[in-house]
UniProtKB/TrEMBL annotation:
Record keywords, A-Z: Membrane, Transmembrane, Transmembrane helix
Matching SUPFAM superfamilies: Nucleotide cyclase
EC number(s) from the headed UniProt entry: 2.7.7.65
Protein's UniProt name: diguanylate cyclase
PROSITE patterns, A to Z: GGDEF
TM stretches of this protein: 12-31, 70-88, 100-119, 125-147, 159-179, 199-218
Keyword Transit peptide: no
Reaction equation(s) it catalyzes: 2 GTP = 3',3'-c-di-GMP + 2 diphosphate
Coiled-coil annotated residue ranges, if any: none
Length: 387
């Protein structure tokens, strides 16, 4: 078939897809890193490479016997579909049905093997019909997984990629059904151009868009994880002081707009220096981590705990008045404390409570909480005080 100005030759589209996929696979190979083991990008790279080879074999270039190229092309195509499916599940942290994917590969390869002994048109047509129904199921599962499990920062991109998978999951069985019902038994390169070319053009767009979408998802998740690490205390796993600054800005803004008070608890571990001196810094670190776990476990779902620095912690209690803050602080004081054991120190903490008042900025409420904490320590520690 010649390439006319008004339309594209299907074989040319296959070769264009081969070049695009090969370029993507090469770039992913160059840019790979150990971090890509967990996000599915390495698996995606192998899927892209297999798909590039599959398109090259299915382009019917007459470089090798047609039955052999069809058989190998379909086998590599099935492998690439299985790898794409696996990469998406790895990215989302979902289980992978290895046996079902292996069964799919065996069935697709078997169908291509059976068809390879038939006429030239049949050994192209039969795999196209069979694969259309089989691959549609996996495309549908990919779409559902991406649609149902979006991370907040990835929701928009995941939904776009999911819609592309939904579209392909509908297109593949429609094309297979039309071929199955067609009275004229023709090969895939002889299907009327009026609807064959749009299908392959959409396939080309689909390949580029899903690859770009998956790469963007990996990039955005990596950025979110870096940001999370920057806002998280490495020892306790609690948000750090930088995260507290952001949370305080949000709490102050909400309080000023809605005139709803929030409470701030400033918490200090009692006699922490003596714990380090008597039991060592390793035990001190364990005490901090244990204390943070207990603190977080004692808060309500809407509350936030932060490591302020050293042995000091902050709890931010939205929409909370003084009486409720005192009750919660007293409960926390009892929950985080523990008696001494033969090889473990006693743990107790002092709590300073401050409640936002109209006109307060961040410094004002922190200063009151700090004064309350100083008062609790002056009264003997292991107690709650309100400023």
């Amino acid at each position: 078939m010649n390439i006319a100005a008004s339309h594209l030759d299907i074989r040319t589209l296959f070769l264009a897809q081969t070049c695009a996929m090969a370029a993507i696979a090469a770039m992913l190979w160059v840019a790979r890193s150990p971090a890509d083991e967990g996000n599915g990008l390495k698996t995606w790279m192998w899927a892209v490479g297999c798909q590039a080879l599959a398109y090259l074999l299915l382009a019917n270039l007459s470089w090798w016997p047609m039955p052999l190229s069809t058989l190998l092309g379909n086998a590599l195509g099935a492998l690439s579909v299985a790898l794409f499916f696996t990469a998406i599940r790895q990215f989302l942290g979902l289980p992978i049905a290895i046996r079902r994917l292996a069964l799919m590969f065996v069935l697709v390869t078997a169908a291509a093997t059976v068809a390879s002994g038939l006429t030239p048109s049949e050994h192209r047509l039969i795999p196209t019909i069979f694969n259309g129904f089989v691959y549609a199921g996996l495309e549908w599962l990919n779409a559902l997984a991406l649609w149902r499990s979006p991370r907040p920062e990835l929701r928009r991109v995941q939904r776009i990629v999911a819609l592309l998978y939904f579209a392909m999951a509908l297109l593949l069985p429609v094309r297979a059904g039309v071929l199955l019902l067609d009275a004229i038994n023709v090969g895939q390169f002889s299907i009327p151009e009026a609807w064959n070319q749009p299908i392959y053009l959409f396939g080309f767009i689909y390949i580029i868009a899903t690859n770009l979408g998956f790469l963007q998802m990996c990039k955005m998740r990596a950025e979110a994880e870096v940001r999370m690490q920057a806002l998280t205390d490495g020892l306790t796993g609690l948000p750090n002081r930088r995260a507290l600054d952001e949370a305080m800005d949000a709490a102050l803004g909400a309080a000023q707009r809605q005139e709803q008070p929030f409470a701030l608890l400033m918490i200090d571990l009692d006699f922490f220096k003596s714990i380090n001196d008597r039991f060592g810094h390793h035990t001190g670190d364990q005490v901090l981590a244990t204390f943070a776990t207990r603190l977080r476990g004692g808060l309500r779902s809407q509350d936030q705990a932060f490591r302020y620095g050293g042995e000091e912690f902050i709890a931010l209690l939205p929409d909370t008045r003084a009486d409720s803050a005192l009750v919660l602080a007293e409960r926390l004081r009892q929950q985080v404390g523990s008696a001494a054991e033969p090889s473990k120190p006693a743990i107790s903490a002092s709590f300073g409570v401050a409640v936002w008042q109209p006109g307060d900025d961040g410094d004002a409420i922190f200063q009151r909480a700090d004064r309350a904490l100083y008062q609790a320590k002056a009264l003997g520690r292991d107690r709650v005080a309100l400023a």
